[in-house]
Amino acid sequence: MKLKDITTTAPEDINKNKIKGELKEILIDLDKLQNLLYAEGKHSILIVIQGMDAAGKDGLTRDVFTSMNPQGVDVASFKEPTKEELAHDFLWRIHQHAPAKGMIQIFNRSHYEDVLITRVHGLVDDKTARLRMKAINDFEKLLTEHNDTHILKFYLHVSHKEQLKRLEERLEDPQKMWKYNSEDFKESKLWDKYMRCYEDVFKHCDDVPWHIVPADQNWYKSYIVASTLQKTLQGLHMKYPGMKK
């Protein structure tokens, strides 16, 4: 897979207003499905969101998941490990946030950071990265086979041009200035390295398949993620439990 060969935009013939209308209906249905998931308590959902800086991870979380009952949805974000976390294996801090049955857990950045940014900056070598990828596959298998966790992995595929545009907006828009981080521009210069590392992840960590989501347009990105989650929840054929005796 070569990311440069995959579009970052919605199909040209798609109707934006129609899709935004469908998204509103999907979000209403997701609220009902999430309540059913929580009440039945048999399954859990893990949403893995990956993407470059300014790909829209935070906005996606807000646009899709805030329509649900916050009692049944949790968000964890994995950035630079703390001293305590570094004293354990790299998945230690991740496993603590694996979803309980009945819950939807969102990873806004995830265990994949440990085979992406670490590799781009030479903090781990290729051998270590491969071992970590195997451990990630085993970890995801553990969740799916032993806790009935359904994992949805989304890579928000934004173009380099659009990323730079969004980063520059953080210098000018007062409502976005709080997001500004000079390191983001430095990381952007490593774009090609990140793309190669992501492509390697898609190749070696695809036991649970990845969804490559065109992310240059936020309305389309949110629609793809919401509709994928909707189909997954509908496929569980859940039922409300009867009255407790």
Descriptors:
245 residues; alpha/beta; Rossmann fold; five-stranded parallel beta sheet; globular
Describe the structure.
There is one protein chain. By secondary structure, this protein is an alpha/beta fold. The chain has a single domain, classed as P-loop containing nucleotide triphosphate hydrolases (Rossmann fold, 3-Layer(aba) Sandwich). Helix content is 48%, strand content 13%. The chain has ten helices and five strands. It has helices spanning 16-40, 57-65, 83-86, 92-95, 117-120, 126-146, 160-172, 182-188, 191-204, 218-234; strands at 44-51, 73-76, 104-108, 149-157, 210-214. A five-stranded parallel sheet has the order 2-3-1-4-5, with helices on both faces. Helix 1 runs parallel beside helix 10 and helix 2 (57-65) crosses helix 10 (218-234). It is globular and about 60 Å long.
Query: What is the end-to-end distance?
Result: 54 Å
Name the helix and strand elements from N-terminus to C-terminus, one letter apiece. Answer: HEHEHHEHHEHHHEH
> Gyration radius, to the nearest Å?
18 Å
Instruction: Work out the count of structural domains.
Output: 1
Summed over residues and divided by their number, the pLDDT gives a mean of: 95
Q: Quick one: biggest sheet?
A: 5 strands, parallel
Count every beta strand, where a strand is a DSSP E run of 2 or more residues: 5
Morphology = globular
The percent range for strand residues is 5-15%
Number of discrete helical segments: 10
Per CATH, the class reads: Alpha Beta
- CATH-defined superfamily: P-loop containing nucleotide triphosphate hydrolases
Helix proportion of residues, in percent? Answer: 40-55%
CATH fold-level label: Rossmann fold
What's the architecture in CATH terms?
A: 3-Layer(aba) Sandwich
